[in-house]
Structures are given as structure tokens and as C-alpha cells.
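Input (structure):
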């Protein structure tokens, strides 16, 4: 039987497509393995007496390196609800997450990371890393060198009392290595923390199961460096100390903070 040229051409086309599709299926798994892993989302959590703008230099560097970054507004009302809020932010993120906390924000990430398998690392920047049952005022007062408690001013609000750092002492306690012109603005715009929240007991710490990194400034008068060293050692964290840096080391020495965050990203891939 004579095969029409058009039928022969169609048969050849189908055979060619079948061959191409077969080859594509064969090489697809190999190609997939060469796809680089997604970069983790960096979630930066600020502490009391500050806001998310304190992370600006850190954000700029991380974004330039191609990392997605979120710096949410920490409510600063009480540890439980603040941690629940940050946890809800993590709920919205697909893929790996690195949680970074400054100061009281460290206590928040310690609690917020629980139950999130995609949280791959905790980075504590001049931060509290409490154990279960501890509160941050207790930790700050347990080591010499701290000036935070003696510098607090209180203002009542409906349902509680807020704590501020006395503007006259703000630079000395919080940011001694920043220009006075900058710290005057920071003191005037500081976000207070509820004293009830600051004295609230922490829950089961995520650092017991999630690897941790610490940045410890040696001239920190808000959280004594000795307290930070103790918490880092207890958590089994990897530590970088920044000689002469104040409590706002992410503003005065953002390069060191970014390096420690990148180290956490690299080690947890």
C-alpha cells in the first residue's frame, strides 16, 4: 500500500516529537538538581525603645545581596502576644526563614520560632535569649554593668504602664557610639515597652532545637555583655564580639551584623 507523503510527514513529525519529549523527561530531573536553593527570608525583629528603622543599614546590605527581607513592627505590648504576632508573620512566608532579634526582640524570636519547621536559624543581636520562666528585666539586673533599670521612666496608659529610657540618659545607655544629633532624635521618637510585658515569663525556648548565632557588643549598657555571653553559651550559639560597640550595634557596626546573619544563612542551607 502506498503511503501518502502528507501521512508520512505527519508520522515523522509525531516520531520526532515523541523523541524530544522523551529526551526532555529524561534530562528534567538532572536539570532540577542544578537549580540553586531559594535564599531564606530574613525577618528582622526590633526591640523596645526603638523601631524597625534601626535595621535600615542591615536591610540595605541584605537586599543588595539578593535576600528577601521583612522588618515588621513589633507591637511591644507583652511577650506572649508579641511572639504570636511575629509567628503570624512567619506563617505567611513560604520557604526557609532566618529570624533575627535585637534586644527584647531576641526574647520575641525565642518564642515566635516554636512550631515553625522552616525557621532555620536564630540570630541574636545585642539580644536576650531567655530560658523558660525567665524574664528580661530579671536577666538585665542579674549581671553587673547594666544601666537600663536605673534609667527607666514610666508613663501609665489605659491598662498598664509603659517604660521609656530617660532622654537625658538615652545616649549613654542605648547608643553611645552614635552621634548625639542622632540619639536626640532616637530618644524623642523611642517606642516604649509595657512593663508588664517586659517582666513576663518566657516560654520554652526555640534555641534548644534551632541553631543560633550571637553578636555581642562589648560596650552595651542596656544588656550587660556578661549576660549575653552566658545566654550564648547556654544556647550553644556561635558568637562574634564587637569591641567598643553599643547596644545598637546594627546601626553603628552593620557590617559585622550582616556577616553574622550571612554566616547563619550559609551554615543552614
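Output (sequence):
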Amino acid at each position: 500500500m502506498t503511503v501518502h507523503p502528507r501521512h508520512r510527514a505527519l508520522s515523522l513529525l509525531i516520531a520526532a516529537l515523541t523523541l524530544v519529549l522523551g529526551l526532555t523527561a529524561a534530562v528534567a530531573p538532572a536539570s532540577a538538581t542544578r537549580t540553586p536553593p531559594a535564599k531564606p527570608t530574613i525577618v528582622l525583629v526590633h526591640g523596645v525603645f526603638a523601631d524597625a528603622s534601626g535595621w535600615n543599614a542591615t536591610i540595605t546590605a541584605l537586599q543588595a545581596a539578593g535576600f528577601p527581607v521583612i522588618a515588621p513592627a513589633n507591637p511591644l505590648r507583652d511577650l506572649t502576644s508579641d511572639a504570636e504576632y511575629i509567628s503570624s508573620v512567619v506563617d505567611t512566608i513560604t520557604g526557609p526563614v532566618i529570624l533575627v532579634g535585637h534586644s527584647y526582640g531576641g526574647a520575641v524570636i525565642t518564642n515566635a520560632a516554636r512550631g515553625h519547621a522552616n525557621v532555620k536559624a536564630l540570630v541574636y543581636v545585642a539580644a536576650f535569649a531567655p530560658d523558660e520562666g525567665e524574664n528580661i528585666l530579671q536577666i538585665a539586673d542579674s549581671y553587673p554593668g547594666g544601666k537600663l533599670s536605673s534609667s527607666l521612666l514610666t508613663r501609665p496608659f489605659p491598662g498598664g504602664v509603659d517604660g521609656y529610657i530617660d532622654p537625658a540618659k538615652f545616649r549613654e545607655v542605648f547608643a553611645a557610639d552614635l552621634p548625639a544629633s542622632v540619639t536626640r532624635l532616637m530618644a524623642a521618637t523611642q517606642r516604649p515597652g509595657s512593663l508588664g510585658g517586659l517582666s513576663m515569663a518566657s516560654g520554652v525556648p526555640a534555641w534548644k532545637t534551632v541553631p543560633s548565632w550571637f553578636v555581642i557588643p562589648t560596650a552595651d549598657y542596656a544588656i550587660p555583655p556578661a549576660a549575653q555571653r552566658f545566654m550564648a553559651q547556654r544556647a550553644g550559639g556561635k558568637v562574634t564580639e564587637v569591641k567598643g560597640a553599643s547596644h545598637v550595634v546594627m546601626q553603628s557596626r552593620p557590617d559585622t551584623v550582616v556577616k553574622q546573619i550571612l554566616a547563619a544563612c550559609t551554615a543552614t542551607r
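Notes: The two ends are 63 Å apart (CA to CA). The chain is about 45% helix and 20% strand.
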